[in-house]
Amino acid sequence: MKNYKFYLSDIDANTSLKSASSIAVDGEFSGLDPKTDKLHLLQLCDGSGFVHLVKFEKDYNAPNLKEILENNKIKKIFHFGRADLGFLKQHLNINVKNIFDTKIASKICRKFSPDHGLKDLCRDLLGINLSKQHQTSDWGKRIEEYSKDQISYACNDVLYLHKIKLELEKILIRENKSNLAEQCFNFLETRTDLDLVGLKKDIFEH
Ligand code: MG
Known about the structure:
Blueprint: E1 4-8, E2 22-29, E3 39-45, E4 51-55, H1 63-69, E5 75-78, H2 81-92, E6 99-101, H3 102-109, H4 118-126, H5 148-159, H6 161-174, H7 178-196
Parallel strand pairs: 1-4, 2-5, 5-6
Antiparallel strand pairs: 2-3, 3-4
């Protein structure tokens, strides 16, 4: 049975995601700069193992999706949300709040490790080996042209974030760093705004 569903331009109005307490979110782009590049695909998962894939074509008029992403009661789980948030702000014109970022959390509470990629966290925290080989594939083509591997790659980017978050939360609590992580998640909105005005480097650095 398929564990995903595609939508064109916007998610269904009656989607079960609306009543989720937390949603894992990840985007695929045409490049790295939200100012010049497109957001092609947004993957969403409520932790149930089913992935909702929204493909953008002509525009970003997606009221149902915006309603979910702007619902501050729903926790949005990202892995390196800084990238996705830039594209969401630039194209959908939304500020996403109430965030947990697995990459930031890992950097804060797993200082012993130099590796904080999604593949690393899946391996180290969940014992799951992920392939990252489709990271750079062409997401601009039509849904019908996506390969099975490409779709499975897109799904994997959100399928494990709930479980990773649970493991990281345990370490954050143990290390007494939950507050620090929370403050970093809250700063992501400003970090995204800095990116969008061209201040990509760490402005706190000497
Ligand atoms: Mg991705």
